[in-house]
TrEMBL record:
The lineage of its organism: Bacteria, Pseudomonadati, Bacteroidota, Flavobacteriia, Flavobacteriales. Keywords: DNA-binding, Transcription, Transcription regulation. This is Cupin. The keyword Magnesium does not apply. Residues 177-277 form the HTH araC/xylS-type domain. It holds the Pfam family HTH_18. It comes from Flavobacterium akiainvivens. InterPro entries: AraC-bd, Homeodomain-like_sf, HTH-like, HTH_AraC, RmlC-like_jellyroll. It comes from the Bacteria. One of its GO terms (molecular function) is sequence-specific DNA binding.
């Protein structure tokens, strides 16, 4: 695997690509990667993390990564070596001396989940990155205290977001049974079991809820919902005492044709074929 080197203590790199120019690679330095526009999948270590406008990734020398670009993506890379922070310890407060940016860059959660910044933090991040790139016309930005404190403010945002991630990781304020009960109560109301709706109900960010669900139930939330719907639909169809049109309506399908196509895709047979085989 290719390993990239950097000798300058701080470099900025901004570019736009439709296909990422590097294969899976690592490096001897650190990177903060901000997505200005575009979307795709970030292959980070063994994880696949979807990215979009405003996404932020923290890469350490321990990591290897690659971007699978789905739509033309504009990147801003803030790349720095160990010496960038170690040479400026006189500017650190006590907390940064204990919890250094380099330690934060190695945080396991940042490699497993997409960092989610709420407002106004996402706007603050965008403005901070713009401030740094605007200052990049200077000859030596690595020596600039202004840029240094702007970079530190990004780590402040990461730290705040990590605090929320750890809170969810260490135990949300709800149980597995409560989540399952909610799903079963609302399975006939599709809008209430969308990821955003159930996350809001349990007061947890959608990206964290998805990771929590998969960790606790060993399959994705989407797969669980699809499996449950299919089982309930098959049971209703096989009973034979409810019109197909009514079942379609109960499960939120726009019409009977859409419902039949969904059922056939899942069971390799139409609803009426299943009823016939059941002797209905």
């Amino acid at each position: 695997m290719k390993k990239l080197n950097q000798f300058e203590s701080l470099l900025l790199d901004e570019f736009e690509e439709e296909k990422f120019h590097l294969p899976v690679h690592g490096h001897t330095y650190y990177e903060l990667i901000y997505i200005v526009k575009g979307h795709g999948i970030h292959h980070l270590n063994q994880n696949l993390l979807p990215y979009g406008e405003g996404s932020l990734f923290a890469i350490s020398p321990d990591d290897h990564h690659y971007f699978d670009i789905h739509s033309s993506t504009r990147f801003i890379f803030i790349k720095f070596t160990e010496s960038y922070f170690s040479s400026k310890k006189s500017l650190f407060n006590d907390d940064l001396l204990i919890n250094t940016p380099q330690q934060m860059m190695r945080e396991k959660l940042l490699k497993e989940q997409v960092l989610e910044l709420d407002e106004p933090c996402s706007t603050i991040l965008k403005n901070t990155v713009n401030n740094i790139t605007a200052y990049n016309c200077r000859q030596d930005i690595s020596a600039s205290p202004i840029v240094f404190y702007q970079v530190l403010s990004i780590f402040g945002l990461i730290k705040e977001a990590l605090g929320k991630m750890h809170k969810y990781q260490n135990g949300p304020q709800f149980s597995n049974n409560q989540v399952i009960a909610y799903i079963h109560e609302n399975i006939y109301t599709p809008q209430l079991i969308q990821s955003k709706a159930i996350s809001q109900h349990f007061n947890i960010a959608p990206s964290y809820f998805g990771a929590w669900f998969k960790r606790n139930f060993k399959l994705s939330y989407r797969d669980y919902i699809n499996n449950l719907r299919t089982k309930l639909i098959e049971k209703r169809v096989s009973a034979g005492n409810i019109p197909i049109k009514q079942i379609a309506h109960e499960f939120g399908f726009t019409d009977e044709s859409h419902f039949s196509n969904y059922f056939k895709k899942k069971k390799q047979a139409s609803p009426r074929d299943v009823q016939k085989s059941a002797g209905v």
